[in-house]
Amino acid sequence: MQPIIISIVAFALMFGAAVGAARVRAALPDEHLGAEAKDVVARSIGFVVTLAALVLSLLIASGKASYDEVGARLRQLGSEFVLIDRAMAHYGPDAAPIRETLWRTMTMVRERVWSGSEMNAEKLTPHLPALGIERVEAMIRELAPANERQRVLQSEALSGLREIKRTGWLLVELSETRMPKVFLIIIILWLVIVFFGFGLFAPSNRTVSAALMFCALCAACAIFLILELYAPVSGLLAISPRPFEISLSQLGR
Fold this sequence. Notes:
Radius of gyration: 27 Å
Number of domains: 1
Largest sheet: none
Distance between the termini: 43 Å
């Protein structure tokens, strides 16, 4: 389910809980709405608010760390492609087919990662480690260096390919990091309880309703932000492909 849909559902549940609490209050006996009852409910809701705020902050921090790591690995991936291409450019004309294959491989990676849907293992594995890179590695190994300089360049290119493989599999693992559904359900449940408590003793007027709606919107935005951070190459907060495209534009020069 898309983050925007989940956020809208969460907003509806939270604000709906506040509106429903006002109707529940009208049906409760007066002894259930006294000062002592209000104090207990306020303390209980305060406890749940603290828990919800703590979990939300942890989830945002975790999602941001994962988002930044994916961005750094993608930039590193682009740099490694450029370094291998430069090594093969200095190697000589014999490496021209390798550079062409390297460019096609990087183009496939770019299209595969930023294709408009979520990045996952199925999108990365076939094109990055298994096909294009393996083909490039085989072609480099088949080179017959004529001097020490070419042998060094061949060794550097093979070392760069190992880094690309390592980075590619790290990206596969990072792309499988998702916000646990149980966490999402629990945090939304806590927020629904909080808004029910807010609405239970709140006066019925437009100002209060607007304040509760604004708070519910802010909480829904926090959930949206968390879900977007766990989908780093899709959605409104998608990592820009521009750095990768700049690296791609350097290949073959």
